[in-house]
Write a structure and sequence with these properties.
heterodimer; A: 205 residues; alpha+beta; eight-stranded mixed sheet; two-stranded antiparallel ribbon; 34% helix; B: 183 residues; alpha/beta
Chain lengths: 205, 183
C-alpha cells in the first residue's frame, strides 16, 4: 500500500518535473552579448565534445542542424566550407543535431554517422541527447547559427541567425552573414549585422 | 487512496501523451527526401509562383474580406497537421467573407514532386500559392516584424486590423483568433 503510494507520487513528480522543465526552457534563449553555455555531447565518433576541449580556439560556430531538414541539407556544403575556412583561423564549426530521434528517426545517431560520412563532414556532429542544449541557446529551427567569441569571461554570443541570404543557390549569395561576422570578430571590428532571420525547420522534440 | 493516486498518475500520462502525440509523424508526413541537385522542372507548376514583391499585394487587400494567410510547406509536419483546420474554416466561413490562402514555402525542386501530388491527394480547396524568394531575411520582417522564421506561421488580416501567429493552430484556436476579425 505504502509502496504504491510512493511509486505513484514519484511518477507524478518525475512527470511534473519533465513537463515544467520544458515549459521554462522553451522561453529561454541567448541574445547578442550573452555568455553561451558549454556542453558535453556525444560526437559521431563516440567521443564526448566540449567547447573547453578547444584550448587554442578564438571562437566557435555552433550550428544547430540535422539530416532531414531541406534547408539544413541545402546548407551542408556551405557548412563544410565554413569549417575549412575558419578552423585554421581558430573558429571551428561545432554542429549539433537538436532533434529527438524518437520523433524523427532519420535524425538518429546512426543516421547522423551515415550522413556525416557521405558528405565528409570535417567538424564534430553532436547529438543533443535529451534535447537539453538547444533550448538554452534558444535555437528554434535548423539550421540556426550561433557565433561565439572566446573571452576571459566565457564564450560570448556575437551573431545569431542564417548563414547567408540565399539558401537556394550558393552562387547567388549577396550577403555572407556568417563570414562577415566571423571576419569582423577576428579583426576586432564591430559586427554590422548581428542577427538575421531565415525560414527553417522547427526542431523536433 | 492507492486508486486515486493511480488515477491521477494515469491522467498525467494521458495529458503528457496527448501533448507529444501532436508532434508525432503521421503516415503522410514521410521524411523529406531532398535532392538538392535535382533538375527542378518548375515551368509548368500549377500554382502561382511569386517573389515577395509579387506576393505582397496578397498581404494588403483593402476589400471587405478577412484573409487567413498560412505559411507552410510539405516538409513541415506541424504545418501538415493543422491544414485540415484551415480547410474546414475556409469552407465554413466563406459566407462570412473569410478566405484562406495557403502559402507554400516548398523549394523549387519539390513543387512538381511533392507539392502538387500532396495538394491533389488531400483535395485541398483553399487557394494555394508558392512564395519563392530566397532573400528571406529581407521579406520575413515585412510579413511581420516579430516573425522569427519558423513555420507554421499565420497572418490574419482585414482592412482594419491584422494579427500574426508564429505557432500551430487547433480548430478551436483558429476560430478564436478569427472571431476577433469577423463581426
Amino acid at each position: 500500500m505504502k509502496t504504491f503510494k510512493i511509486i505513484g507520487l514519484l511518477a507524478l513528480m518525475v512527470l511534473l518535473g519533465a513537463f515544467s522543465g520544458r515549459m521554462i526552457t522553451d522561453e529561454a534563449g541567448y541574445g547578442i552579448g550573452d555568455n553561451a553555455t558549454d556542453f558535453s555531447l556525444k560526437n559521431i565518433d563516440g567521443a564526448m565534445v566540449s567547447l573547453s576541449d578547444y584550448k587554442d580556439a578564438k571562437g566557435f560556430l555552433v550550428i544547430f542542424t540535422c539530416n532531414t531538414c531541406p534547408y539544413a541539407v541545402a546548407y551542408e556544403d556551405r557548412i563544410i566550407a565554413l569549417d575549412k575556412k575558419y578552423k585554421t583561423q581558430g573558429v571551428p564549426v561545432i554542429a549539433i543535431n537538436p532533434n529527438n530521434p524518437a520523433v524523427q528517426p532519420r535524425d538518429g545517431f546512426e543516421a547522423m554517422k551515415k550522413r556525416a560520412a557521405e558528405k565528409g563532414f570535417t567538424f564534430p556532429y553532436l547529438l543533443d541527447e535529451g534535447q537539453k542544449i538547444y533550448p538554452q541557446y534558444g535555437a528554434t529551427r535548423t539550421p540556426h547559427i550561433y557565433l561565439l567569441e572566446k573571452t576571459a569571461s566565457g564564450n560570448v554570443v556575437k551573431y545569431i541567425g542564417a548563414i547567408d541570404d540565399n539558401y537556394q543557390d550558393a552562387s547567388k549569395v549577396e550577403d555572407k552573414f556568417v563570414e562577415n561576422a566571423v571576419d569582423a570578430m577576428l579583426a576586432g571590428e564591430e559586427i554590422k549585422r548581428t542577427t538575421t532571420k531565415a525560414i527553417g525547420c522547427t526542431i523536433k522534440v | 487512496m492507492v486508486r486515486s493516486i493511480l488515477i491521477v498518475s494515469i491522467s498525467f500520462f494521458l495529458i503528457v501523451g496527448c501533448g507529444s502525440k501532436e508532434k508525432k509523424a503521421t503516415a503522410e508526413n514521410k521524411d523529406v527526401e531532398m535532392e538538392v541537385a535535382t533538375n527542378t522542372q518548375t515551368s509548368d507548376v500549377i500554382f502561382p509562383v511569386y517573389d515577395f514583391e509579387g506576393f505582397k499585394p496578397l498581404l494588403n487587400k483593402e476589400d471587405d474580406k478577412t484573409y487567413i494567410i498560412n505559411f507552410w510547406a510539405t516538409w513541415c509536419k506541424p504545418c501538415i497537421e493543422e491544414l485540415p483546420y484551415f480547410e474546414q474554416v475556409n469552407a465554413e466561413q466563406s459566407d462570412n467573407g473569410v478566405e484562406v490562402i495557403l502559402v507554400s514555402l516548398d523549394m523549387p525542386s519539390m513543387w512538381k514532386s511533392r507539392l502538387e501530388p500532396f495538394v491533389e491527394k488531400k483535395g485541398l480547396k483553399s487557394t494555394v500559392v508558392i512564395l519563392d524568394d530566397p532573400k528571406q531575411n529581407d521579406w520575413i520582417p515585412k510579413v511581420a516584424e516579430e516573425w522569427g522564421g519558423g513555420i507554421p506561421a499565420t497572418l490574419i488580416y482585414n482592412k482594419d486590423s491584422r494579427s500574426f501567429y508564429e505557432q500551430g493552430f487547433t480548430y478551436e484556436e483558429l476560430n478564436t483568433a478569427l472571431n476577433k476579425f469577423i463581426k
